[in-house]
Write a structure and sequence with these properties.
- The protein is of the alpha+beta class and 238 residues long.
- It is built from 7 helices and 11 strands.
- The strands form 3 sheets. Strands 2-3-11-10-9 form a 5-stranded mixed beta sheet.
Length: 238
């Protein structure tokens, strides 16, 4: 259990559903990787592909390449982090097109939800800073009134300094529901099916969603128990 995680995924996803839409399952999945021909794990075209593009030997759509270049903010790393979700298929396929604008390493609050109407990706809403308004202070800065001339007693400061924090969560403070916004979605009528599968040479268990064009996604969610994915699969057809 990671105490730095936000509220449960289902609780966070429910407010984003449309009237009559039913939530089947939801899970957090921060890291996104690609298993797509011509792209590295971060969704960036491989060097050999770029070379061919420069020589005119390849005929990829310009907007597709541009989007792929913008998709991976972790390009250049030699050891990709362990992904929770992996995109499968071809460039420009349903899976690649749906998520290519997402960063490959999102926030801890990024969650994936399957509903009766769509496969949905949600992110924590971060409001733009208002002109002239100072940046929001950290939990500790707020607690001691940093920058506002608030003077606290030694006892109060000692209590603050000994308060344990876990990411954005603090000891003794209820975990609040975050405001979430949709950042990607795929309608259910473009989903061909789900199956419990194994990904890669290590044969890691996963839930695989296949789309009508042959592309897909593997959901690993940092879990190695096939029974959990069997349960997820049962929820997709409930």
């Amino acid at each position: 259990m990671n105490l730095g995680y936000p509220l449960g995924a289902a609780s966070q996803a429910l407010p984003s559903l449309h009237p009559g839409e039913r939530l089947l399952w939801a899970a957090y999945g921060r890291t996104l990787n690609y298993d797509v021909r011509g792209l590295d794990p971060w969704g960036v075209p491989k060097k050999s592909v770029l070379g061919k593009l420069g020589s005119g030997a390849a005929n990829f759509a310009g907007d597709m390449v541009g989007a792929a270049l913008g998709a991976g903010d972790d390009g250049g790393k030699s050891n990709p982090p362990s992904p929770q979700v992996i995109v499968l298929g071809e460039q420009g396929g349903i899976a690649h097109t749906a998520v290519r604008e997402l960063s490959t390493s999102g926030s801890l609050s990024r969650l994936w939800a399957l509903t009766s109407a769509r496969l949905l990706v949600l992110e924590k809403f971060i409001p733009p800073p208002e002109p002239g308004k100072p940046a929001e202070k950290t939990f500790m800065s707020k607690a001691i009134g940093f920058g506002k001339g608030v003077v606290k007693t030694g006892k109060e400061i000692a209590a603050i300094m000994t308060t344990k924090t876990y990411g954005e969560n603090a000891e003794g403070v209820p975990i609040a529901r975050q405001e979430m916004v949709p950042c990607a979605e795929i309608p259910r009528d473009r989903v061909a099916g789900f199956t419990v599968a194994e990904h890669g040479k290590k044969r890691r268990p996963c839930l695989r969603v296949s789309f009508v064009d042959g592309s897909g996604m593997d959901f690993l969610f940092d879990c190695d128990d096939p029974r959990q994915f069997a349960w997820l699969h049962s929820m997709t057809v409930s």
